[in-house]
Amino acid sequence: MLPLALPAQQQQPEDSNLDQFKRAWQAAARGDRTVFERIKSGLSDYVLYPYLQYEDFRFRRAIVEPAEMAAFLAAHSDWAFASGLRKAWLRTLGQNRRWDDLLLYAPGE
């Protein structure tokens, strides 16, 4: 019986991380920064952590500091979400008439 119980115990931390990830994602998607920040802090080593950051930036793209968004996008340029987030952010900059930021982060586009 012990060998069967051991793998289940070894899976538990990963399952816990996944549950926490889901809770943090939902908090980010609804803009609940307090819950998001509390949960996110315990997941910084989790493989999907950049996706939590993505969801947070996606939700806050109209208010996030442009340099912070640009740094995140540069650091994750090869991730699947980067292109879509960048386009949505630049579009939001335009909609909000933030022309200087748009010209700085999207020259020639």
Characterise the protein shown here.
- With 109 residues, the chain is mostly helical.
- 72% of the residues lie in helices and 0% in strands.
- It has six helices and no strands.
- The longest helix is centred in the first third of the chain and has 28 residues, at 2-29.
- The radius of gyration is 18 Å and the shape is elongated.
- The protein starts with a helix and ends with a helix.
Keywords:
disordered N terminus, mainly alpha, single chain, 72% helix
Nutshell version of this structure?
Helix content is 72%, strand content 0%.
Q: Mind telling me the C-alpha Rg? A: 18 Å
First-last Cα distance: 63 Å
Percent of residues in helices? over 70%
Structural shape:
elongated
Protein structure class: mainly alpha
Strand content: under 5%
List low-confidence stretches: 1-9
Number of strands: 0
Secondary-structure element series: HHHHHH
Biggest beta-sheet profile: none
- Mean pLDDT, nearest integer? 88
Topology readout:
Elements: H1 2-29, H2 33-40, H3 49-60, H4 66-75, H5 82-95, H6 99-105
